[in-house]
Amino acid sequence: MAEYPTSFDKDDLLKCARGELFGPGNAQLPEPPMLMMDRITDISGDGGPHGKGHVVAEFDIHPDLWFFECHFPGNPIMPGCLGLDGLWQLTGFNLGWRGWQGRGYALGVGEVKLTGMVRPDRKMLTYYVDFTKAVQTRRLTMGVADGRVEADGETIYQVKDMKVALSET
């Protein structure tokens, strides 16, 4: 396990987006506006309900976020796919945090449930990623995790069997 902190502020996340945190050619977060979190409050390689690792992160919601203007005019809602992308981003971040090499990419998700919406009056999203499997072999580096997103404490998105891999190419 690499020696990184267990929490990260926005400046740290932007360093990751620029390839400065885990090194060139390794896991990166997207830059704003696609960066879907403002801070990571806790991360581990052995925590969570399965003992395989976890991530907890937060995203501050304000009415001027880019997606509210276009999705949908007169009825602003954060696209659910952006919440899912935030969960994928955090899953890949955890693999890089472990010191595992390669660029991250989403492989899929087994199940998605959207039971609520993010409107401009919400204040904060909290992401929870709980790994069920983290594998690193000569041929494969992959994390499998379940996740959920809460808006102001209310669970609005849940996913099972989310998969992210790291590849040297």
Describe this structure in words.
With 169 residues, this protein is of the alpha+beta class. Strands 1, 2, 3, 4, 5, 6 and 7 form a 7-stranded antiparallel β-sheet that branches. The model has no long low-confidence stretch (mean pLDDT 96). Helix content is 18%, strand content 36%. It has helices at 10-17, 66-70, 80-97; strands at 39-44, 54-60, 103-108, 111-114, 124-136, 141-151, 154-167.
Please specify the SSE layout and strand pairing:
Blueprint lengths: L9 H8 L21 E6 L9 E7 L5 H5 L9 H18 L5 E6 L2 E4 L9 E13 L4 E11 L2 E14 L2
Antiparallel strand pairs: 1-2, 2-5, 3-7, 4-7, 5-6, 6-7
Summarize the structure.
This protein has 169 residues and is an alpha+beta fold. It has helices at 10-17, 66-70, 80-97, and strands at 39-44, 54-60, 103-108, 111-114, 124-136, 141-151, 154-167.
The separation of the N and C termini measures 22 Å
Coarse structural class: alpha+beta
Which architecture does the CATH hierarchy give at level 2? Roll
Radius of gyration: 15 Å
User: CATH homologous superfamily?
Assistant: Hotdog Thioesterase
Shape: globular
β-strand amount: 35-45%
Topology order in helix (H) and strand (E) letters: HEEHHEEEEE
Tell me the CATH topology.
Thiol Ester Dehydrase, Chain A
Spans of at least 5 consecutive residues with low confidence = none
Strand count, sense and closure of the main sheet?
A: 7 strands, antiparallel
How many E-type strands? 7
Which CATH class applies here?
Answer: Alpha Beta
Number of domains: 1
Helix content: 10-25%
Integer average pLDDT: 96
H/I helix tally: 3
Q: So what's the oligomer here?
A: single chain
